[in-house]
Amino acid sequence: MTARLFGTDGVRGVAGRDLTAELAMELSVAAAHVLGDAGAFAGGTGDMAGVGAAGSAAGRGRPVAVVGRDPRASGEFLEAAVVAGLASSGVDVLRLGVLPTPAVAYLTAALGADLGVMLSASHNPAPDNGIKFLAKGGYKLPDTVENEIEERLGERWERPAGSGVGRVHEAYGEADRYIAHLLTTLPVRLEGINVVVDCANGAAHTVAPEALVRAGATVEAIGARPDGLNINAGYGSTHLDRLQQVVVSRGADLGVAYDGDADRCLAVTHEGEIVDGDQIMAILALAMHAKKELVKDTVVATVMSNLGFKIAMRGAGLNVIETAVGDRYVLEAMKAGGYNLGGEQSGHVLLLDHATTGDGLLTSLHLLAEVARQGRSLAELASVMTRLPQVLINVKGVDKAKAAASAELAAAIGRAEGELGETGRVLIRPSGTEPMIRVMVEASSEAMAQEIAGRLAETVRTTCS
């Protein structure tokens, strides 16, 4: 069986090898036919005049797409291929330039576009790249729509000509529309807050410092000099060492870090302690609850969220709904239940009152707003939950089917859960893409978590090979 082209967050691979210009163009053609219904508009007389800074794409004669990218060098040729595929399919294109994924999602909706395209491989190294498609309204695609795009790759189609081809316009000024939107969501100004912001040499290197300054904060930016090859290299939410050092050495109030496409955010206290996505969600959940803004007093998290988060939420009288790992599953649960706050330990936080996807810059602004509003340090705010020691061991080269059926493994899990009681937990889950079992244990002490996780991993190796 052929492997599915779309992964958990679009199509990714090494640019130029796995993700070629030819594939990018073919994907864009297929996406245009599925999302833009381009065939129905072939021969149309759409007019792009006024679309962009002065107007909306809604109501035009042809379907419209917005295209953004992060600063990877490969994004330049992939953007050209995507734009060519869309325009040759009869879709008008607005090129947004280098912007975060959530900015592209917001502008897909704000400009009335029929689809959005983001070129990024998120926190992956520079040689990788990816293509994410967004539906009308700025939402990520469900599996069924991605499957339809895959199925239509390479199909025969009637190509428009003359006035039927799409037109391409630059819309780099739309970054300001995104920043203005973010600032309208803030409950308070950020004057008096000194923050270091790590942009991962990625898509937020311009808009993040500008938004924070316009919100009133005093800002020092690091990782804000992308050269096309240094994205995520020693900077960003997956490399917090440098941010910790700068925050402490400068005497800043706190630091925030994004990943390459800025859809996630982690933070650092004035003492250099890391504040992860669970802690950020806890801070925002309690603040929203106090202001009666948290829908159904519920937060949506994944099975990997720290038990300390769930204990803290339960202690505050709030509900936690768990999903599979992946922000798309968090989003699905939030939309199904009408909830407005959810996210992941990795820093994907979804504030659906203001965005359609995880937005690192939005998250950081609202986190800083709580520091300003409450007049307390980030360290104090983060103390609302205690992170239990969490140990994760990946056991490779095992038979996932055997693991699911193993009575010996089930018994070992039962014994471990008995030892942990209510102060810990065990999570055994198969990898979705590899012959691997992930063993995760949380306990009241690091030593206990390590001992139990090691024991369970050995059981997996001996019974499931």
From TrEMBL:
Keywords from the named record: Isomerase, Magnesium, Metal-binding, Phosphoprotein
InterPro entries in the record: A-D-PHexomutase_a/b/a-I (IPR005844), A-D-PHexomutase_a/b/a-I/II/III (IPR016055), A-D-PHexomutase_a/b/a-II (IPR005845), A-D-PHexomutase_a/b/a-III (IPR005846), A-D-PHexomutase_C (IPR005843), A-D-PHexomutase_C_sf (IPR036900), A-D-PHexomutase_CS (IPR016066), Alpha-D-phosphohexomutase_SF (IPR005841)
Binding site residues for Mg(2+): 122, 259, 261, 263
SUPFAM superfamilies hit by this protein: Phosphoglucomutase, C-terminal domain (SSF55957), Phosphoglucomutase, first 3 domains (SSF53738)
Record-annotated active site: 122 (phosphoserine intermediate)
Cofactor(s) essential for the protein: Mg(2+)
Manner of cofactor binding, per the entry note: Binds 1 Mg(2+) ion per subunit.
A GO-annotated cellular component: cytosol
Gene Ontology MF, one: magnesium ion binding
One protein family per Pfam: PGM_PMM_IV
Modification Phosphoserine, positions: 122
Residue ranges of domain Alpha-D-phosphohexomutase alpha/beta/alpha in the record: 60-153, 177-272, 276-386
Modifications the protein undergoes after translation, according to the UniProt entry: Activated by phosphorylation.
Gene3D superfamilies per record: Alpha-D-Glucose-1,6-Bisphosphate, subunit A, domain 3 (3.40.120.10), Alpha-D-phosphohexomutase, C-terminal domain (3.30.310.50)
EC number: 5.4.2.10
Top enzyme class: isomerase
Catalyzed chemical reaction(s): alpha-D-glucosamine 1-phosphate = D-glucosamine 6-phosphate
GO terms of biological process kind: carbohydrate metabolic process; peptidoglycan biosynthetic process; UDP-N-acetylglucosamine biosynthetic process
Domain spans labelled Alpha-D-phosphohexomutase C-terminal: 392-458
UniProt family annotation: Belongs to the phosphohexose mutase family.
Primary role: Catalyzes the conversion of glucosamine-6-phosphate to glucosamine-1-phosphate.
PANTHER family noted in UniProt: PHOSPHOGLUCOMUTASE (ALPHA-D-GLUCOSE-1,6-BISPHOSPHATE-DEPENDENT), PHOSPHOHEXOSE MUTASE
Name of the protein described by the UniProt record: Phosphoglucosamine mutase
